[in-house]
Amino acid sequence: MGNESISVTQPVFFIPHGAGPCFFMDWQPADTWNNMATFLKSIPNRLPERPKAILMVSAHWQTSEFSITAGTKPELIYDYYGFPDHTYQLTYPACGAPVLAERISQLFTDAGITNEKNTTRGFDHGTFIPLKLMYPEADIPVVQLSLRNNLDPKAHLAAGRALASLRKEGVLIIGSGMSFHNMRGYGDTSFTEPSERFDEWLTNTVESVDSDERLVALANWSEAPHALDSHVLGAEEHLLPLMVIAGAAGSDTGRKIYSEQVLKTQISAFQFG
């Protein structure tokens, strides 16, 4: 931990991870993902200090109970389909962090949250794709946390609250999903305005001064304007990492740090702390 006399608290982030390996291949139009890539590369500069480890909450891993990668050398899971051959050769040789995995498991247990450690699970693209942009050297240990497959927002908010103390232990917590994720809507101009209205609600909620009101609103996200145009009920896994992040944020104020129209839909990222 070094000789720090003052405890540093890492901020927490909810980020978009794009579409499969989109940042590492040609796309039409060619600049579709440029701004998002630039944003992801900027995240290390937003931190008070270099993290000692990274905890990624990915939309692409769902289990019956919260699961934590606990292997020392997790492999990559190329869980995207129909992309160029070279994107299945991408590498991200970050080591795991079994000690951190055990710490996370204990925090969950102390909070009454059932969990399990998984020593064989690798990193899916919701983890390794954004990390290749943020920390291309892959020299920071990484642990990935699953979502619960019942997609209960309150359970994920509670999970985040249980993990909040890690922020003072040098751990960077990131939720990797998409603020808009309706496959039917991408590229369809009829979804542009609905996505903007939901994004407006999401921004107002994240930036709410009253953190208790924020948590209540997020728990009831499906009642928001155009929520079900933006995330299909029963398939809202790309929004759920935000719940973990909002729980870990505690009373910290949230703010939007990236927003643009991608594939005719509004996509945003948020930071707390």
Automatic annotation (TrEMBL):
What the entry lists under SUPFAM superfamilies is as follows: LigB-like
Q: Which cofactor does it need?
A: Zn(2+)
Q: Name one GO molecular function term.
A: ferrous iron binding
Q: Write down the superkingdom of origin.
A: Bacteria
In the UniProt record, does the keyword Oxidoreductase occur?
yes
Q: Which UniProt keywords apply?
A: Dioxygenase, Metal-binding, Oxidoreductase, Zinc
Domain Extradiol ring-cleavage dioxygenase class III enzyme subunit B residues, every copy: 13-262
- Is Metal-binding tagged as a keyword? yes
Family the UniProt entry places it in:
Belongs to the DODA-type extradiol aromatic ring-opening dioxygenase family.
The record ties this protein, via PANTHER family, to: 4,5-DOPA DIOXYGENASE EXTRADIOL-LIKE PROTEIN
Q: What is this protein called?
A: Aromatic ring-opening dioxygenase catalytic subunit (LigB family)
Source taxonomy lineage? Bacteria, Pseudomonadati, Pseudomonadota, Gammaproteobacteria, Moraxellales
